[in-house]
Specification:
about 190 residues, 9 helices, globular, Tyrosine-type recombinase/integrase, Integrase_catalytic
């Protein structure tokens, strides 16, 4: 599987959301937009249940690390979640699969990681970007780093323990570091 990238500008972030909605569904655009705002791994994002959301917080145990993610939801994310809850009051999962809606004997399940991966890969091909499920998490980390230049904050948000892991993860490369040295004259 090829290495996926962070999306490094806001216009492309919005374009991806638009293309997901137009070519796939509002639900996939919601996965992208909410995923960007939560910076969770895709397995944790898809496993979110409405019961994991209390007021303006999401509290879940990350499957990979076992760490508790206690995330304050921003207003855009909260509005999207509330809209989904209104439209699907009987859903258990935030991103519940519609595939087996009529089958009464099949337990509710979230969308599959594979489905999300294929949709993002198709949009990525169209835009000539290596896009995948980790792109949401990487994009949030990259944009936060560009806004703050505080790798410690980015590490904490992504719940990483090593700075070099975070820098590599969000796609900060030698060219970016060189640019910072050239542009910041003291």
């Amino acid at each position: 599987m090829p290495e996926v990238q962070a999306v490094k500008d806001q216009d492309t972030v919005k374009l991806i959301s638009y293309l997901l909605e137009r070519q796939f569904s509002q639900q996939l655009a919601d996965v992208w937009n909410i995923g960007l705002n939560l910076a969770l791994r895709i397995s944790d994002l898809l496993s979110i249940k409405f019961s994991d959301i209390q007021d303006d917080r999401l509290i879940i145990k990350e499957s990979k690390t076992g760490k508790i993610a206690n995330i304050k939801l921003n207003s855009k994310t909260l509005e999207r979640i509330q809209r989904i809850a209104r439209e699907h009051p009987n859903h258990i999962y935030l991103f519940q699969s519609y595939r087996n809606q009529r089958a009464k004997h099949i337990k509710p399940a979230p969308l599959s990681r594979r489905y999300i991966c294929r949709a993002l890969a198709m949009i990525g091909e169209e835009l000539k970007i290596a896009l995948g499920t980790h792109s949401m998490r990487k994009t949030r980390g990259y944009l936060l780093y560009q806004q703050t230049k505080d790798i410690g904050r980015v590490m904490k948000m992504l719940r990483h323990s090593a700075e070099e892991t975070t820098l590599r993860y969000i796609g900060i490369e030698q060219d970016d570091i060189d640019k910072d040295f050239v542009e910041l004259e003291i």
